[in-house]
Amino acid sequence: MTSAFQRIVPAGLLAASLFALSHSWGPVPAIGPLLDPYHGLWGVARSAALPESGTATIAELTDSVVVLYDDRAVPHIFAATVADAQRALGYVVARDRLFQLEL
User: Fold this and answer.
1) How much is the pTM?
2) 3-class SS letters over 34-87
3) Using the 8-state DSSP alphabet, how is residue 1 labeled?
4) What is the DSSP letter of 27?
5) Domain range summary for the chain, segments of one domain joined by +
6) In whole angstroms, how far apart are CA 59 and each of 24, 62, 64?
7) Tens digits of per-residue pLDDT, 54-67?
């Protein structure tokens, strides 16, 4: 009896969790489709592409800074001073990885 109970309770909890995640509840949308590894949030992040070029104005920079991305999307920052490079790095990290910082 105990082994059957130990199998039924987790299966019931799993079924209830799957049901709760796949249905919307009032104004809250269904969360289950977001967690889908192929079509969900991670699939969208995997297919995201960097823009071909762009410019941004960052306060307190003393000189121009160039940020180049290689074929693996790794940023390479070229600046006249260390302080400018640090400010540009903060901007690049916030632009590219803010969702990870928030998590």
Assistant:
1) 0.54
2) HHCCCCCHHHHHHHCCCCCCCCCCCCCCCCCCEEEECCCCCEEEECCCHHHHHH
3) -
4) T
5) 1-48, 50-103
6) 43, 9, 11
7) 888 888 899 999 99
